[in-house]
Every structure is written in C-alpha cells, then in structure tokens.
Amino acid sequence: MGQHTRGCAIAFVALLCTGCATFRSYDKELRGTINAVSSGNVDGAIQVLQSNNKSEKKDLLYYLELGELQRLKDRYRDSQASWMSADQRVHSWEAAAKADPTRLLGGATALMLNDKSRPYEGHDYEKVMLTTRVALNFLAMGDFDNARVAIKQTHEREAVIADLRAKEVREIERDTGKRGAQTSFKELNGYPVQTIDNPQVNALRNSYQSALSHYLAGFIYEAQSEPSLAAAGYRQAIELQPNQPLLEDALRGLDQRVAAPDDSLTDVLFVVETGTAPARESRSFPLPIPVNYTWVLIPISFPVMQTTSSFPPPAQLQVDSGESLPIVPITSIDLMSRRALRDEMPGIMLRGAIRSTAKAVAQYQLQHQAQRKDNEWIGLAALALTLGNYVTESADERTWRTLPAEIAIARGRMAPGEHSITLNTTYGPRTVRVNLSGRHAVVGLRLLSSQLFVQAPVVGTQSVALPQRPSTPAVPATFEEPSPAMEISQ
Fold first, then answer.
1. Is the pLDDT at 68 greater than 90, yes or no?
2. Predicted TM-score (pTM) of this structure
3. CATH assignment at residue 187
C-alpha cells in the first residue's frame, strides 16, 4: 500500500511538472507583441509572437495574431495564408461540435487540471471576425468577388454558432441541475461583476454578431449590383447598431445609388479602428468545499476582463485639408469580448465546480489517510496534491489581442486619384495618402497608440482565393495541422 501511494505521489508530481511547462500566461506574452506594434515595429512584434510559439504545431491563436500583424504590414497574401490556416481549424471545430455537442463543455484534462489544457478553439466573436477580416483583406486587394465569398461565410458561421450555443446552454443546464452546481458568477464572492454585466454589455444581442460585418456585407453586395442582398445587410446592421443616421442613409439611398449612372466618383467606405482587444486575467477565488462534514479549501481561478486603455475613434476624418466626413462607431470588440465571457461563465464555473470537488475529495482522502496511518509517503502525496491544486489552478487567458477594441466607419464620394486623409488623434494629427480608383473602395485606418496604419486598395495586387469547403466535412478525431496549400487567383 505504501509503495502504491508513493508511486501515485511521484506520478502526480511528474504530472504537475509536465503541466507547469504548458501553463503559459498569454496576457504576459502578448504584452511584448502589443508594445512593439504600438511603437510601429510590426516586424519586431512578429518576432516576439514567433519566439513565444516555437512548437512546430501552431495553434489557432497563433495564426489569428500573425494574420493581423501581417495585415498591418500590407502583407495581404501572407495574412490571408495565416488566416486560412486559422479558418480550417475553426471549420474543424464546427464539424466536431456538430457531431458531438458535449465537447463544448470541455475535455477530461480541463476537468483535471485547468481550462488552459483545452485546445484553443476561439471565442465566438473571434470566429466571426476572422472571416470579416479576411473580407477586408480582399477589399484591400481590390477583390470584391472573393470578399463577397468571405462575408457570406461570416453570416453562415453566425448561424452555426447560434445553433451550437443553444445546444451548449441546454447541456450546461442539464449537467448543472444534475450536480447541483453553482454557475452564477454574480454569486462568486469578490468577482468584478460590473466588468461583464453592465448595460452596454447586456444591450448586445449576443457576443458574435457585429454591425460592421453586416454593413460591410451591404457595401459589398451594393458594389456587386445586388440591391436586395445589400438591403438585408444594411437592415441587419441597423438592428444591431440602431439610431445611427449613417447606417440608415445607406439603406435609404440604396436603390438610387445602384441605378445611378457612373459619375466617375468613387464611393469610399472608411473603416476606422482603434486600440487592441482587452486582455483576460486569471484571478484565484479560494473556496471551501465540504467533504464528509470537513471543509477543504480549494483555489478556483476564473478569467476577469482587464480594463482597456483604448480610446474612442476620432469624431471625423479630413480629406485633402477640405471636406470632413463624420466617423460613426459601429462595433465594439471590447464589449463583444466582455459579452462572450459573460456567456461563457456558466460553462467555466461548471468545469471549475467539477474540478474543485474532485480535488477536494482527493486532498481530503490523502490527508485523512496520512493522519490515520502516520505514513510519510501518504503525507508527501497529500502535500504534493495540496501544492498541485494551487499550481495547476489557473484560468484561461487566451484571446485574440491584436484585434481592434473599437471600430467605426465613415463614407463619402471622392474623385479617383491620390488623396490625403487626416485623423486628429490624442497624439496630434496623423495623415496618410491613398490612391482611389473604381466605383467602390474600402480603406482601413488603424490607430495603435501614436501609430496610424492604412490598408488601402492597391491596383494590381494579387489575391489569395478562399479554398472551397466540403459540403459535408468529415469530423476529425483530433485537430491536425492543416495544409497551407490554397488557390492563387491572378
């Protein structure tokens, strides 16, 4: 019996040591990346990201972050390749979750150690923003055809997520009722409830539908002379972001714009983005768990949203030192990420309750045996387990940090050719030059600290086409490294 207990203790300590190496603090890792890109050193930011992800098998989050950084460098082909790798992983998640909704509750490793041990499958708003940003990349390359494909996939993904989350809610409610677990974060003593439960967060319909995606769909369909589809996109954007005249004007004047003859002007949509998405921080909440009329103190960690230092978009942009266009907020990824955490908390708390109860029972049994038998190896195992409970208990901090915190739009008709665009920022005016052509164009403007990045259409840019998805994808047993091969359209 002593040898068996000794073996268990040694095995457990080995498990802890193995696990500790993988329990990274994603928040700390991304600070170096964010600091580098905020100072204008995008290449340095990419190097920091790569240095923190040396494994040959890269996860979803690596490709999400890398694609965003490559986009800021106008490396659209590289960005699309990274995001296609990310999209294949999300598509694998969709297929697997459809086949087995119980996987949404988390794997056995997460129940034994912590949520960081789960494969990162992305938050819902990240999955939808992925294809939206793929569409923006296509538009920066002047490719409205492939942008149409990507934005259509965005809204198809919304429907998939809505169905899967409805199933997840039912599974959590069933499992919670069966276990008698507490899954309301409002009852968690010391948790900063107001960070994820406030009027602005609660006003969102869900965590994944954005007015930006639907307005962009309207603009793309309008450029393709598909007014009925464009109207649907604009209407959905208005529903998600009501009382915005700029959005209402897009719908009101749609038929006239589509039917109007070419006046040689370019209808320009400016997408103005500021800041970076907020971080999640792991905080421990030690809770007493009753075991055989004895209270066992077990640490339980939950993610907490950090306050963001991002600033709102400027009120207007100036064109060629003359005309000013109003800038209208349309999507807050900051709020979407907070809503995502609010919606995820019942599942997180359920896994935490199962994990803490199992740890409390194991800790109680070893401590009880050590006291009753006065066995040093059992005592060592009890000590290792107690320490291990503190070491392994950490909330999942992973989230797509290089996404902007706030997104706004402006729209105007401009003559083709080169123009200067000026934004008045807290660091003073920032000016970029763009070259416009055609009847429709999308210009991205990203403010990061004192830096202004521009994603403007470049004539003659080669585009990376989206790969065709199978209509009935096979469900993978594991998430394999996807092939980077994809079709290149000239």
1. yes
2. 0.84
3. 1.25.40.10
